[in-house]
Amino acid sequence: MSRLNRREFLKLAGLASMMAILPRAVSAATTAPRVVVCGGGFGGATVAKYIRMWGGNVDVTLVEPNASHISCILSNLVVTGQISMGRINIGYSSLVQKHGVNLVQGKAIDIDPNGRTVGVETKDGVIDLPYDHLVLAPGIDFMPADGNWNTEMTPHAWQAGPQTTLLKKQLAAVPNFGTFVMTVPKAPYRCPPGPYERACVVADYLKRKRRNTKVIVLDANPGITAEPDGFGRAFNQTYAGIIQYIPNANVTEIDSASKRIVTSAGTFTGNVLNYIPNQKAGRLVVDAGLANDATGRWAAVDPLTYGSTLYPEIHVIGDSQATGQPKSGHMANSQAKVCADAIVRALNGEAPDPNPVTASACYSPITSKSASWLTVNYQYNSQTGLMQRVESSFGEAASANGDNFEDMFTWAESMFADSFA
Amino acid sequence: MNRLYKSPPLLAGIAVLLAFSQTSLAAPPAGQLLASQCAQCHGTNGSGPGFDDIDGESAGELFHELLEMKNRRVESIMDKQARGYTDAQLLDIANYLAGQSNAAANTVSGTTKTSVKNKRNTD
Q: How high is the ipTM of this complex?
């Protein structure tokens, strides 16, 4: 396939760069450093916005295949029909219009780390975007078990959008005496409390709308991996008789046609099979050979810059990186700011901040009216070179309640705006 | 190409670029990166949307509140968040956020007496 160069592409796409048509008097501006960001989720959007806010004259291009971002945050409430899809559908217009980010709708397919270009498949062909710094925020990819997994029949709904709608439809079709079977992937995976949250809101829905239903939670881990007190209470008390929690259930085989799943804790079938597989870094990171941690699944990075240990000017933030911090939208936003600050400093010939702090906080609905929260901060440890959890900052809500449920929407609104607006 | 010179939006864009390129030469202000970690819940630069606006308070008020949250019994999510920072980091955050609102005489003493606004703390 023939490739367009960037100038040809911009002309084609009607994006004629201001740099290219500036009068000679300000031609110095054409030397603006170029940052390309691949992936427009919480991490990618935030890094693009904050480099523009903090970096001044930096040419930032965001590459994203979708026209808007559908947030995983709050998406379990779309599954139960409590909120609409529109509420979690976030556009990129503020990034472009308010912050001056160039948006290229396309899929980043390959990276030339020596030539410092990234290939992007667009509707007009494949283009090569040159960069001084490249930020990869592609989220997750799945590692499904053997068998015959068809996502059109057996949703994961772990990347929000059409999958969310499919799971919503399947949940709505569960009859009285029906069974909803779901899995919890082996840690680390995207959104540690997320699967337990889903089990709760699905159980709440079925408890309110159906008779004698069951939610079977097949957890690959030896126990509840996040908010064990709160979710333990919910499973054993709030949803006693509905949720059946089975730990140490590693999925070995899946068959979508028969809705049958084989695990180390037995074989299960249900009216709905919601299979959330084990996970690894997004495909772009893996294909570029950047998933180089001990497991070969995530990208090893320097937590002062999020630069890859292989190519320091290629940064990996959010779910794909291997620092051991939780994989969440809030954390991706947090890491994006450390990365943005480090890139801006590097462009000005300065060293990165030696003491970055990151944070993750989230609210999880437990019923249709109550929620819990989970929070943690990480500080850089210069002895180990790792981000270290601040133990006193780590913890969950004492109980699920209505105030937390209201606060959840305030948090989400703020997160969406800080990342995308 | 000549008509580009007559295009007000383009000229405005150039002015913005020049302004940016001047500011980008300075090192980032102390506390800027730390305080950006407040923005997920309080809005970019602390100015919302989100929980209590935190860009309108003096550095002294903010620092006092953050220390109180850090040291009291944990009841709200902020009491946990405050524990994630050293006192020196909290001071940098307070100074930076107070500077965002152009409030007068904002450099902190850290001893300002003020009421702590936290509606959840009385639950």
A: 0.91
